[in-house]
């Protein structure tokens, strides 16, 4: 995994300026220790150490230092306004803070997507005794998600996603294969093929294996719909505008698998990414079609815009055949989850209470929350088909729940499984979360797997 923090942290600096880190409980005592001129300067700007606040301190040669206000010291977001709020150069921190949260917040706050447009400035650099290895990995993983999601489909279609995963496999000595085009039919992945066959860019299943059979086996599956027109049930223009992000689940799955390998957790990893474009064309699958699946469950297509669950069902069935100890899947699956929980809270579904509790606990520990939603099985009635075993959609009621229930049909009954319906996007910029692609629930999943491996 590439160290994306090389220009953010320094371990020695002769001219680092001081950065005071305060909250509303510590600001009064610190302010009282300052010279009259500094107190007057702070008063003139009404500085009270509110979370997200920042004031530069003047000196004889210009800026002598700065002070920032934070909230929860364990939350990386508390520090994320510093890298671009401070002038360029080196900074050393004084005041109460959590070193790993500070470093992680610094790394996340410094991010800018620069593939097509240069950044207007460099972020400030943080003086540290040493950069925490887990922090470096998490910053790199989050950067991986953001970069993949932010890249337009022109440059991040199924074949480019294959190149990314193949490169990661090469870097970590993992086994990799890609099943492409009509080979999906020959090897019994008909649902993936059905969704992706209308595009001029062939659908494929990306498959990576890493780790020893002596270790617990985790299957990680990600929805890789590189662009979603909605198919013949075509989306309106505003609904299609950001659909380059519909592979956000795959971006999370890829980044998590890469992080596990980079940190060499004692786990065995299977990564599966069905990578397709849901395109319009003469060979597009149609509303009313009945699609075969790897598991032998026939699916009536109620809505071609409910394509994510159709490609995932073949991948989940294949994952289950490999008898993993648990299956995790990530998907930008439903607008219903966003309506229920908003953009910042991914919806978590699981058939296993211990697994769900562990993911939630990981989110609480890392300040990367997920919210459990019910697998309310009576709602399977909304997916009833008169001519097939199941429909891929139906009622508008409980859309996130019915999508998860659909996926559960393709998971072995006794295999612990968790599904994260994530937005993978920031609609507007705020400290630590620039507009565009975002990793949501990733740190929580990492904490869960790290605890499991230990």
Automatic annotation (TrEMBL):
The Cytosol aminopeptidase domain sits at 303-310
Any one Gene Ontology cellular component term annotated for this protein: cytoplasm
Which Pfam family, giving just one, matches this sequence?
A: Peptidase_M17
Q: Identify its protein family.
A: Belongs to the peptidase M17 family.
> By its UniProt entry, which PANTHER family does this protein fall under?
LEUCINE AMINOPEPTIDASE-RELATED, PEPTIDASE B
Q: Name one GO molecular function term.
A: metalloaminopeptidase activity
Q: Which UniProt keywords apply?
A: Aminopeptidase, Hydrolase, Manganese, Protease
InterPro entries in alphabetical order: Leucine_aapep/pepB (IPR011356), Macro_dom-like (IPR043472), Peptidase_M17_C (IPR000819), Peptidase_M17_N_1 (IPR048816)
Q: Which GO terms describe its biological process?
A: proteolysis
Q: Output this protein's name.
A: Leucyl aminopeptidase family protein
């Amino acid at each position: 995994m590439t160290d994306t923090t090389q220009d953010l942290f320094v371990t020695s600096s002769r001219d680092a300026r001081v950065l005071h880190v305060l909250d509303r409980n510590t600001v009064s005592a610190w302010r009282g220790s300052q010279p009259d001129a500094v107190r007057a300067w702070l008063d003139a700007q009404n500085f009270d150490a509110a979370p997200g606040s920042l004031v530069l301190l003047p000196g004889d040669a210009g800026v002598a230092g700065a002070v920032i206000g934070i909230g929860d010291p364990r939350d990386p977001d508390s520090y994320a306004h510093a890298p671009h709020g401070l002038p360029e150069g080196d900074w050393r921190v004084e005041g109460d803070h959590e070193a790993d949260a500070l470093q992680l917040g610094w790394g996340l706050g410094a991010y800018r997507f620069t593939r097509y447009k240069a950044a207007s400035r460099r972020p400030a650099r943080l003086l540290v005794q040493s950069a925490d290895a887990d922090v470096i990995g998490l910053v790199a993983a989050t950067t991986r998600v953001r970069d993949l999601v932010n890249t337009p489909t022109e440059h991040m279609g199924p074949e480019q996603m294959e190149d990314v995963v193949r490169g990661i496999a090469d870097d970590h000595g993992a086994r990799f294969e890609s099943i492409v085009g009509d080979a999906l039919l020959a090897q019994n992945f008909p649902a993936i093929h059905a969704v992706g066959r209308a595009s001029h860019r062939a659908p494929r299943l990306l498959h990576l294996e890493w780790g020893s059979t002596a270790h617990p086996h985790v299957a990680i599956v990600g929805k890789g719909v590189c662009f979603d027109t909605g198919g013949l049930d075509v989306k309106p223009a505003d609904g299609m505008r950001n659909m380059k992000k519909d592979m956000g689940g795959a971006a999370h799955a890829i980044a998590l698998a890469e992080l596990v390998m980079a940190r060499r957790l004692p786990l065995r990893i299977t990564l599966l990414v069905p990578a397709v474009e849901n395109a319009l064309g003469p060979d597009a699958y149609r509303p009313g079609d009945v699609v075969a699946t790897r598991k032998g469950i026939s699916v009536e297509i109620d809505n071609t815009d409910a394509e994510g669950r159709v490609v995932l069902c073949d991948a989940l069935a294949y994952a289950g055949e490999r008898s993993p100890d648990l299956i995790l899947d990530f998907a930008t699956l439903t607008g219903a989850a966003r309506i229920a929980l908003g953009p910042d809270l991914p919806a978590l579904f699981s058939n296993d209470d211990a697994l769900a509790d562990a993911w939630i606990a990981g989110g609480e520990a890392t300040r990367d929350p997920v919210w459990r939603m019910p697998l309310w099985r009576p709602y399977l009635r909304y997916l009833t088909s008169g001519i097939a075993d199941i429909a891929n959609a139906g009622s508008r009621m409980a859309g996130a729940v019915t999508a998860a229930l659909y996926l559960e049909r393709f998971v072995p009954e006794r295999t612990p499984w968790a599904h994260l319906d994530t937005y993978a996007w920031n609609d507007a910029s705020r400290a630590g979360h620039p507009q565009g692609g975002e990793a949501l629930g990733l740190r929580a999943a990492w904490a869960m797997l790290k605890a499991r491996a230990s």
